[in-house]
């Protein structure tokens, strides 16, 4: 069985870090500060910023967790869960 509480905790940690990246971003520094350029690159750029990639990974993790919960519910209904 999937440990949903542990996964929820890890996803919450990632969500907090994504929020912090957004709050701490200094878009006016893009082009002058390599770190800001890498993390805050505008979405119109050909290469997505690291922040944006992390957000996509987070979205994928949420979807995987949703499927795992669904599968666990099916197993519980069939009597296969612990």
What is the domain tally?
A: 1
Question: Which residue ranges are poorly predicted, with pLDDT under 50 across at least 5 consecutive positions?
Answer: none
Number of helices: 3
Largest sheet: none
Order of helices and strands: HHH
Broad structural category: mainly alpha
How much strand content do the residues show?
Answer: under 5%
For the termini, the CA-CA separation is 7 Å
Shape: elongated
Helix fraction bin: 55-70%
Overall average pLDDT: 78
How many E-type strands?
Answer: 0
| Rg calculated over all Cα atoms | 18 Å
What does this structure look like?
- This protein is an all-alpha fold.
- The chain has one domain.
- 70% of the residues lie in helices and 0% in strands.
- α1 (4-24) packs antiparallel against α3 (50-78).
- The model has no long low-confidence stretch (mean pLDDT 78).
Give the helices and strands, then pairings.
Layout lengths: L3 H21 L9 H7 L9 H29 L4
Provide a brief overview of the structure:
The protein has three helices and no strands. It is mostly helical.
């Amino acid at each position: 069985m999937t440990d949903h509480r542990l996964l929820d905790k890890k996803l919450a940690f990632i969500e907090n870090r994504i929020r912090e990246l957004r709050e701490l971003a200094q878009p006016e520094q893009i082009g002058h500060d390599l770190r800001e350029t890498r993390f805050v690159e505008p979405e119109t750029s050909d290469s997505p910023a690291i922040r944006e990639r992390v957000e996509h990974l987070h979205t994928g993790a949420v979807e995987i967790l949703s499927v795992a919960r669904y599968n666990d519910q099916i197993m519980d209904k069939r009597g296969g869960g612990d």
